[in-house]
Amino acid sequence: MTRLRLGILISGRGSNMQRLLDASSEPDFPAKPVIVLSNRIDAEGLETAKAHGVEGMAVPHANFETREAFEHAVDTALQAHGVEIIALAGFMRVLTPWFVRRWQSRMINIHPSLLPKYPGLKTHARAIEAGDAEAGCSVHWVTEGVDEGGVIEQARVPVKAGDTPETLADRVLLAEHELYPRALAKACRIISERPAR
Fold it and tell me: What average pLDDT score do residues 54-65 get?
């Protein structure tokens, strides 16, 4: 089995990244992490990556005058590592159309809602305010619209009486940790089955 070379983009501690690294330690997992890249030099997840034997690299966005210049530097690093699929794991930057088009159909993200419900921020508060019986998380293809790409897979979590955005977020995060490796594996299979370009 050919494993796709995986690049993971983070901004902080990278708890979802940790789950992807754990899953990919299995030899039959269809992705092989080759670089974890952060836009912040102090991101805890860079040390986690190194502990897993994966290169951790910081490309601080503050060092660049424009978003495009930052993304060109990120793209150069990903290309240098032969990356074939990108997983965003708590990467707190909105990507430009240029970068999204460059990695179209090869970049996925995890979002803490049942898309298309509640794209963007404050998803848990919005679910509670709406009186939803369930919340959850979605892994989707990244497109130019924020959280608008096609859903690959979702996980559902009940909204309980007395939930706060924080308690709901804690339960959704546990579901994210189960969902993301499974959805990444599915995305890898989809990419591998496409006709060669």
Answer: 96
Tokens for 71? 């993304």
Q: So which residues are the catalytic ones?
A: 111
Neighbours of 196 (CB within 10 A): 3
d(CA 92, CA 10): 7
- Please tell me whether residue 191 adopts helix, strand or coil conformation: helix
Cα angle for residues 89, 95, 96 (degrees, 5° grid): 165
Which residue type does 14 have?
G
β 134-141/151-158 pair status: antiparallel
pLDDT tens per residue across span 87-108:
999 999 999 999 999 999 999 9
What's the residue count for the chain? 197
Question: What SS3 state is found at 165?
Answer: helix
Q: What distance lies between CA 181 and its chain's CA centroid?
A: 10
What Cα–Cα distance (Å) separates residue 106 from each residue in 39, 101, 149, 173, 183? 20, 10, 12, 24, 13
For the chain, domains (ranges, CATH) are: 4-193 (3.40.50.170)
